[in-house]
Design goal:
By secondary structure, this protein is α/β, with parallel strands linked by helices. The protein has 12 helices and 8 strands. The radius of gyration is 19 Å and the shape is globular.
Amino acid sequence: MGRAAGTGSENDDPAPASVVSRACYLIARMSSRVIRLLPRSLCLWGGNRVADVALVLARTYRANAMANFRQVLGPDAPAEEVRRTAHEAFRTSVQNMIDLLRFQRLTPAALARTIGVGEDHWSVIAAALSQGRGLILLTGHLGAFDSLSQLPAGRGYPMTVVLGRTLPRPIFDAAVALRQAHGMTVIEATPLGVRSLIEALRRGECVGFLGDRDFFGNGTLVEFFGRRTTLPSGAVRLARETGAPILAAYLRRTPTGYDLLLEEPFCVARTAHRNADVAAGMDRVVASLTRAVAATPGQWAMFQPVWPADDASANSASRCASSS
């Protein structure tokens, strides 16, 4: 189900099979051709205007984002600051979409150069992979996370990414096809995908996870920004099962480009106490996500509720996960 890393060729057409999904994909390809002809500054200006309109029209996404940022910014944050941060998040999301279209014809190696990945970054990844157990690349919906997931192919490292579907099926399929154009494999977040991930790690490859959204509501109960919720523990559980190290990585946007942050890789212990092992691993994941979101909250492009309506809901979800 994967594609050879490093091609970036438009002749290897990854378009989805369904008629509607293929139409969405072809529209995106045509948009990509137009965007590539325009100056980056003009694309960003136009993208910001699109985000301004989306902030007004996408009421549900706006409400979800503002609810999330009320938690992140704290109870004393003024309402205007919460709204301004949500506005920034909308702009970040549109900029990510523009990047996805602008970078279509770049090879993975050229993309890495455009992002500014240096030898110091590659050395961290190479050292983690040298153990022969693969590498779990963990990030969140933060900054240019789409571009981040495509970087390992720039060094010839096969990459499999796990995504949860938050868009209508045709748009999601088209977006997956665009992402796979750079040689990575995309697996929708379902229980059936776990075996493929284990096999990729055992081949010594990279696997990517987004750790800040519990798509199935069956994650591990944690405290995130001072309030209980559930976050997905798949990356930690896979790390415990396979011995693969976890590398938290974030690609932040700057006024002039991008800033890639790689944290210190860590391994998850495998003792007789599975729940304790997972909890310890999740503590490190939550700490990393908290640092990253707090540093640039306006780049957290999260438009689904991260925290439940009440703590009882989080407790219930956690009990279901523990009993499964």
